[in-house]
Amino acid sequence: MAIHFRTRIRFPDHSNHKPSGYFFFISRFISKSLSESTYDPPFSPVSKLQKAKKKKEKAHGGNSNSNENPTLPLKSYLPFDFFYSYSETNPLVSPIGYRESPKFSPFGPGRLDRKWTGTSAPSAVEVNINEVLEERKRILGDPLLDEEVAELVEQYRHSDCSRQINLGKGGVTHNMLDDIHNHWKRAEAVRIKCLGVPTLDMDNICFHLEDKSGGKIIYRHINILLLYRGRNYDPKNRPAIPLMLWKPYAPIYPKLVKNVADDLSFDETKEMRSRGLNSPPLMKLTRNGVYVNVVDRVREAFKFEEVVRLDCTHVGSSDCKQIGVKLRDLVPCVPILFKNEQIILWRGKKDHEEDMNS
């Protein structure tokens, strides 16, 4: 028979006891002596305030009128016209109207010495192409060796790379140039991941990236690019790139699809459209996908078919029209219908007759 003994230990209850006057005297004396003394421990609020004041004085140069900026309007000696998007804009096609007045510059009122025309900010300085090419060649320096290229590719090719810029449906935008130079401050190369409509023409993206940034593409795999800054690149002497404060409204361009296609009658155009809608889709495109092989697939299909349908469900009507414009120029072909996110393309009568004769 086991007998268990339980003992209770009671501690004295001091909750109702008030601290003595001696305790209050000691605590007030310590706090008063620390606050009034010159001793300031690290990471204290007083030291943070003093450091913040010093930083503000250095930033403003000791001038109390910090709101005044004498550097406006900004001046940039970049040898090209400023567009919102360089790869997705065709300067040869002039708009027929504007959704906003051209006087509203996306760079802000009075912030840039270039006049905004509604689509671009033209350069007012005459450019010497030979001097620009020589300066770019000097910055790039000697070509990289195969070992150096392989080392950079291994360093930046992974998907978790911190030096990455995502290129979307806007293509090579103006503000992206500033992002590239910001990465080049601390890294020799930057990784660019391309998605959406611009991937239909990767050669165009590569050209504008090299032409506008002055770098060199040393690696290209499907939609992944590696842009190298050059051996003699100096971050302190980087070009001045004024930023666009907002995205300008797209102007109004001529109608893409005509009621009656060229070289066809009204009944023939109607018959082509119905045939295309009832035909099986050649491809199904996804939103913000990679469209690298779309042009080749459409060209191959036109060898056997006269009308091709592309299923662009959930892609968006604006992206569908941009895809149609790109395919019209790259394949080439004639877009004859955009309906319910379906693109109907006709290869054209001239191409058909040439194939038949050959």
UniProtKB/TrEMBL annotation:
Q: Give me any GO biological process, just one.
A: Group II intron splicing
Molecular-function GO term, any one: RNA binding
Region annotated Disordered sits at: 37-72
Q: Which UniProt keywords apply?
A: mRNA processing, mRNA splicing, Repeat, Ribonucleoprotein, RNA-binding, Transit peptide
User: Which part of the chain is the CRM domain?
Assistant: 142-240, 262-358
Organism's domain of life? Eukaryota
What cellular-component terms does GO give this entry?
Answer: ribonucleoprotein complex
- InterPro entries this protein is in? CAF1P_plant, RNA-binding_CRM, YhbY-like_sf
Q: What is this protein called?
A: CRM domain-containing protein
Q: Which organism is it from?
A: Cucumis sativus (Cucumber)
